[in-house]
Amino acid sequence: MKHFFTRFTRFIVLAFFLWVSRAATAAIEGVAMPPDDGKLRIICFGAHPDDCELQAGGTAALWASKGHKVKFVSVTNGDIGHWREAGGPLAKRRLAEVEAAAKTLGIVVQVLDIHDGELLPTVENRRTLTRLIREWNANIVISHRPNDYHPDHRYTGVLVQDAAYMVTVPFFCPDVPFLTNNPVFLYYPDRFQKPNPFEPDVVVDISPVMEKKLDALGIMVSQFYEGGANGNPSFVPEDPEKQKQRHKKVRDDFARRNQSLAERFRAQLADWYGPDRAQTVKYAEAFEVCEYGKQPDKKELKRLFPFFGE
Fold it and tell me: Cα separation of 190 and 84, whole Å?
């Protein structure tokens, strides 16, 4: 009897793995992966509908201008990100804003239907991000660092880190073909020092597309002109002249934000562009290579960020 149950157990296990294998093969055959047209494929994750645009809008516009494929993904729907409104109407408003911004930048965008402020690093969310990276057939994946100030930012970073290995595992999410080449994973910049500060591996001159980035950010009225979750009625003046002043202040503040990155990382700009060109760079975006995923050398980074020497 004991030998019977041992053989039966082995049979069940073998049958299960055979079923999984066939199911995976059938599912993979039904998934149309993007064609390899020689263009880079970049996917950026942000916690909310505005994070990717803030952190990588300029570099995305540069990639898009060269015909490369860029996708921004907001991991939550931003449905509590305002001082006056919330819920479904706000989520729809913010979706419309990022869709319009994506058209300005020449990219595509997706917003996941997860409540703002409630993101958790669950297995299901890990599966979701793994599938998105695979479906995009990404060469480059960019996200928050996992020690950012907002819990949604932190957990977006954790989920992307978790996906950095799982995208290559055949029987994790077998419904989507696994990647045979692990992408390069990178982080957006921040100023947090503990447990470790941001250290840029790539700094990009976005001066040629800064006006386009500012135009895209200007579309997100709910977040910037109106102040988002920490705004108040004073952000929305009734006087037309004061409205113009408010719009100008928002635009100027964002310009200064990317100007400060250029100043902060002037030495790294010199490493990529040479000292003479680096001194002329007015606006920049910066990225740090994650220790997970593919580890590129400088030659590979120049291929992935094909803007240097122009």
Answer: 28
Along the 310 residues of the chain, how does pLDDT read in single tens digits? 445 445 545 544 444 443 444 344 333 444 456 777 899 999 999 999 999 999 999 999 999 999 999 999 999 999 999 999 999 999 999 999 999 999 999 999 999 999 999 999 999 999 999 999 999 999 999 999 999 999 999 999 999 999 999 999 999 999 999 999 999 999 999 999 999 999 999 999 999 999 999 999 999 999 999 999 999 999 999 999 999 999 999 999 999 999 999 999 999 999 999 999 999 999 999 999 999 999 999 999 999 999 997 6
Check if the beta carbon of residue 225 is closer than 8 Å to that of residue 253. Answer: no
Three-state secondary structure call for residue 250: helix
Helix (H) or strand (E) holding 240: helix 240-264
CB-based contact 308:302 (threshold 8 Å): yes
What count of other Cβ atoms lies within 10 Å of the Cβ of residue 149? 10
> Which residues fall within 8 angstroms of residue 119, CB to CB, at 6 or more apart?
47, 75, 76, 125, 151, 152, 155, 156
DSSP 45-104: EESSTTHHHHHHHHHHHHHHHTT-EEEEEESS--TT--SS--HHHHHHHHHHHHHHHHHH
Token reading at 125: 């969310």
